[in-house]
């Protein structure tokens, strides 16, 4: 009876029969005065919402975030947003899946692979100040770096997403360095590794991610700058020495525009490149998800983080070229 | 022969005869191929520019920034900008003024008075974390704080301007606290004292002020945040504790808008008030200078730092009320 | 049984039992086709909304704006907005409160105190033209000036709010004049008194305030300018004389930016100061309310009139300094 | 010897030999320290600038604004701006033209024709309040209305330009009313006649036009609103009656956007139409001049008042259709 | 029983009894979990929405877009939007209206009249290249041009609206050419006829109009430019010849601003005029509908396509002047 | 005597002695009334300007764009812009360089290498419609594509720059396709090859490049779309078929924003990626030049095409990592 199909594999109007995790569960009052639960279901294929009408007190107690459930229903669209119309819902019992971790979306690389890639790159940071600062700060936030998401929502909002996004940028950076040889590779790599490390302080953790008070009042860009300055004392570095300033500038300017929260605009070639690669990776990841959830021949729902644009998924069948 | 009148006391078309300081001296080539020196004269009444035509090699050697000179000429306007048409120029000799410091604009309070005011206010910062951080950082940048200008140009661009601007804000803050009793006075005072302290790192010093590399790549807002975080370790404070975050937020948000270089917008009542008082003091100081240099019945030249607006100086004679 | 606690004194999930005024009552159709009444309750502590489900024809007739009611229910939050879940509602009977005026929010100064403050300030307007224009216009709109709110919603939206807001600005203006002696005090005071007087034409009155046709088609800024020009004839003043123009400019430019409805930007020092003090008082008043209604350790709901920002209420306990 | 050709009839590099008026004459210092006079020549074909080098004290005394001169030189372009290279310049003598009025650009309709057109239109303003207000205000500013320019520079900046621009809009308004019968013709006509009448207070007069203090501090839109309100008393009209408000709104909103100085945006169909017809006439008049001064096959210089756009003058020869 | 009154003739709270067409019918789930149908009714007076609660499976099958129905209910307002509260709904039977075309809004000119006007204008396009291109493209899209709406919604969103809007602009263009004789009439007329012809490719057709894929990915402005270039080959014209470029520019620039989808801004007098006439006609048509649906003395709902402004319908009674 | 050092190899204040090409030569009048020639010198290292004072008629005839000259002078800075102070200038004579082509900056790949790379990539465009359209359009504009610059100024403004910029993007595109496998590689490559091909119509040619009339009135984006549509007829393709629309959309949207001249915003993943890679390559190329011309430890002059930012050239010595 249990489905091997996953949540996002169902077409519109298809009958749904799956095990899934309750990612969130908000109790609300309907306009007729009765309670319902606004649920978000999750498995490794993604997440989708559904409403559980006329919820009893017991339902409210059972269906809370973090529980694994069995769901039967129908895949629908509500104003272009996909959702599940729930026919039957129950907690899983003996012999059925019960471990929430099985249903959590995670980075497509293992932690070991990611650690290896980062360590490999650190060898290429041949400037001693940058190398030491990167090692020091990574050591301090090691565990968070490899488990936190890169954002609360939008792009790379999954476990390990922060490290995975960092590595994607590093890969792009290697291609760019190979093509434009005047760029300062160690500076670009060091900046890429540290640019979002402040998210380990800005966000609450890998699950049910929210913003911390530090995140709301300071923001990840300045938070990691503060930690970098603080790391200078034990390393006997001057935070106002040119090489330290260059690395701080890489981090501080990586949002590109003041309006996007960078206190300075990029004033180094490498800072400008880092900003562009950050945007490139984030937008491709976001569009892969958005277009992947759109039917061929249709436009996606509006993508808030990309100015509300809608993206088209073509029907044209294209043989991919060999790219050995 | 020496004038007791100062540079800014002359009317248009009046003959000028003063001792003054050369604030800057740039050698340029005229369109006819000859050299001239673009000079800026300064005394305690303000500064004004003038061009020294057909400069010889010796002139170029003599008339450099920092020298005290005797100037004869005529006060003119060039496209609404005041300037001096130079008739005669020479270095001062024996028995004449020679000390540049005599001619430098400075804050209308003495350093001692300013130090007393600041010390007095620190007593009112009754929250221990904020009190200790303010003391620690002021101790570190003490000398610069009481001698640096508040800016390279525009408002409070004179020796001691940084402390004087800070004290003006503190005075306004005391009035506001007296009127709106819900405000957190210690937080507002601590934020006011530290808000521009980063300028001691951003700017090169009290004379011939330029931006440092740290100023250009990081900016004074984030520079002082870094120093504050760094100060936490010896004080055994957690930079992410709520009280520390509140003070950091006061500093970081004081430009009000992301476009103006604050990485976060004010999210505390006191942070919003600090931002507004900062603007109020800066704009009044700027307009006092601008309107003071305008003839009654005329509009000033455009004030770049206030959206290029021109301000009118009325001819209406108004008896000031008694405000005892 | 009647509560001495007021509407805004209850915490989330606490049982509510109060007398209150119905500020507004809109009959709507629920998505199930039945009628409900969207109510706003008010007392001197503030206002809060609630929905009365399955309203009968008699309920619709009884529960209308202006009636005093007895309310039992529970304090809740709906998407960060506070509201009351209604358990029981009835009109008050004999021996219970019945006078709506008891429940209306009003300025924290009495009318007499406010009149005295204004009269006192008029003595300080030592320039005769401004003095006469202020007296003439205040005489004409006297009653409205001391009873109207300063706005339909947002800041000072209570009875007497217009005069109270004006007086707050005057108090700030006195502090500023004391600190910056070059400012023209009579001009600043006269401008402050008249700046929002047009609201007595723009708004419909102290209760159930709406915009008049004149308010919608002309706006309070130009409305009072028109009345000022009209007052010149009986006072034998030329509306284009410099002193009259200065006062008109104070009023016309006080919104600061053309986008905010001022037909000219401030071109007088005093006009710029008036604009800034207006914003300062309005924002502090608004934030006092917003932060006052937020739990310690939480962010407020978005404040529409301040660019949708959310404000944090700290948990840090701060002893206020003595500021005698 | 005297030319019948006018200033704007010469091609680039052609020798110029004309009588003209000195519209303005500014004495400046060249970068070599010598004086020159920046002149603007004018006749009925338009205006063009030229520089008179190495000016003697006598030259400075002779060549002032308002003098008629004889000019020989060459038509040139300086960075796409047309100018005259001056070979010979002298004041005119006996038997030569001496009356400045002969050389002033003026409206292509005579004052009598314009007065007739306006009077005719007033008959069509069949609503009594609007009719009386229009008559009253026109009577007051009659002479200025028919002689002032519509602007200091840009469109209709010639003697009688204000009335001519008003009449052009009225002609367009008649066409629009004929095509869209739902429009309120009397309101549209009354609004059109009054919309720019405030320029008679904003500008200094028909010659050497500058902004008055009232123009700078209040602006023509609010100035005429004030006069309209003031006119209500003798006419026994209520300035807040609906019909008066409608006419005031027509004037106040005619710049269309707050950013362009209207304190309210158009909220009447007729107000929106008036705004659009105002822009249509102003832009066609401006482009007729700009394109008329451009060579076929070339782009004009940038038109500041139209967002800095450059306009192309085609070489294509097009037979105009008969449009009887 | 059948009403001669039409949908938009009813006042608020009046009982409605009409035949009408179902323009659209969306089945949705209410917050109580039951189905309802969101209907839009249409007849030649306009369109209005209503909700059909508790819809059965048979209702869902019957009440679909394109069916003629008999409707009884009440005219209401929901948050300033007009709607019908449905009491009784049924499909029409024998002897009752059944032809959807009877209920569709259409242009106020017949197709024959419109064809005649266009043909007449083509005679006035005396430049051969433009004449041939206009004839060729009109021939290709003849049928669509005279039956398509000018937009999916907003202005001229009715059958024949595209041709009618084009003709309105041509009429305005004739008035403007008569008043400003320097304009190139054939260029203006040719540009006006072609400016929106791309909508025949951008939109799906006269009924249930949606955007095509070509409309979404390319847009009507560039679509018709492509067809014009393509038409050059059979006509043996060079798409880069000056006369062809002028006509292409008229089309490409007619939205006026890059932000509105024009790839170039108007750089010809005639292009600027076409842009302004397009806006003038579209806005008057839109406001005629909006104000026509507003009660005297009230403001309309917000008009999205005009920056969300609300428009006032006066109560002032104005005798229209004779305009023979 | 002839220098092997090139123009851009000289430091400030160093004596210059080189052969170079006159890229442009504008005769102007100095403020003292004498003629001078504003020259731009060019060789393969870049370009630099200089002023030739007191030019005789013969100088004006000799020193025109396109002539090879011998130049002696001094390298200076004028307000942060590098320039040459000219000591001696003469045309080259027998036995000295005379061929302008020797001094023209050109792409760092030979035409043959570039042709091979493009041909290779066409094999990877495995979708037949795109393959045929790319071949057809490249065939038509073959010669221009490999010789034109990519712009009049700014990035890739050298001979062959258009093809070189296209190939740089293609190289980046290959890296991106290798990293993000969901992207449609043939669509991305076809779009990249055609995206700027319209510049062959927009620009006048490889030397003394100016905008054509077609470039000014239509722009390169729409020009190549027109040619693509026109190419459909001989290839028997429907310009509105989905696969053709996808390719047209790639071209039309590649400027990313409407404000930058794209008539539609990217609505395909590949279109968004193309836009970003275009910006990435253009900005790196521009910054390589700008930073290359800046002294270590200094900020560059403002880069107009990058929002006027200034870029810092560090002094930090960084060993590049091995990236085999």
TrEMBL record, chains A, B, C, D, E, F:
UniProt keyword Hydrolase present: yes
A Pfam family per the record: HD
PROSITE patterns noted in UniProt: HD (PS51831)
Keywords, ordered alphabetically: Hydrolase
Lineage: Bacteria, Bacillati, Bacillota, Bacilli, Lactobacillales
Listed name of the protein: 3'-5' exoribonuclease YhaM family protein
InterPro entries: HD/PDEase_dom (IPR003607), HD_domain (IPR006674), YhaM_exoribonuc/phosphodiest (IPR050798)
Annotated SUPFAM superfamilies: HD-domain/PDEase-like
Record carries keyword Hydrolase: yes
Residues of the HD domain: 162-283
């Amino acid at each position: 009876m249990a489905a091997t199909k996953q949540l996002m594999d169902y077409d519109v109007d298809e009958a749904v029969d799956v095990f899934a995790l309750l990612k969130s569960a908000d109790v609300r009052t309907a306009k007729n005065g009765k309670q319902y639960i606004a649920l978000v279901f999750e498995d490794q294929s993604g997440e989708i919402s559904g409403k559980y009408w006329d919820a009893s007190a017991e339902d409210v107690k059972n269906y809370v975030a973090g529980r694994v459930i069995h769901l039967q229903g129908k895949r629908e669209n509500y104003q272009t947003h996909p959702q599940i119309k729930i026919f039957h819902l129950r907690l899983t019992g003996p012999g059925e899946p019960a471990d929430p971790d099985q249903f959590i979306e995670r980075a497509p690389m293992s932690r070991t692979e990611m650690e290896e890639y980062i360590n490999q790159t650190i060898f290429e940071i041949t400037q001693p100040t940058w190398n030491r600062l990167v090692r020091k700060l990574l050591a301090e936030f090691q565990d968070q770096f490899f488990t936190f998401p890169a954002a609360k929502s939008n792009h790379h909002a999954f476990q390990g997403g922060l490290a995975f996004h960092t590595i994607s940028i590093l890969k792009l950076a290697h291609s760019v360095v190979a093509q434009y040889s005047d760029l300062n590779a160690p500076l670009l790599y060091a900046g890429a590794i540290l640019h979002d490390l402040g998210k380990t302080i800005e966000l609450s953790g890998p699950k049910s991610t929210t913003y911390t008070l530090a995140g709301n009042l300071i923001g990840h860009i300045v938070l990691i700058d503060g930690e970098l300055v603080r790391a200078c004392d034990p390393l006997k570095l001057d935070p106002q020495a040119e090489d330290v300033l260059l690395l701080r500038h890489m981090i501080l300017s990586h949002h590109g525009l003041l309006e996007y929260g960078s206190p300075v605009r990029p004033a180094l070639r490498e800072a400008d490149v880092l900003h562009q690669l950050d945007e490139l990776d984030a937008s491709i990841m976001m569009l892969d998800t958005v277009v992947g959830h759109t039917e061929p021949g249709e436009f996606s729902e509006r993508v808030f983080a990309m100015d509300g644009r809608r993206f088209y998924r073509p029907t044209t069948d294209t043989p991919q070229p060999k790219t050995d």
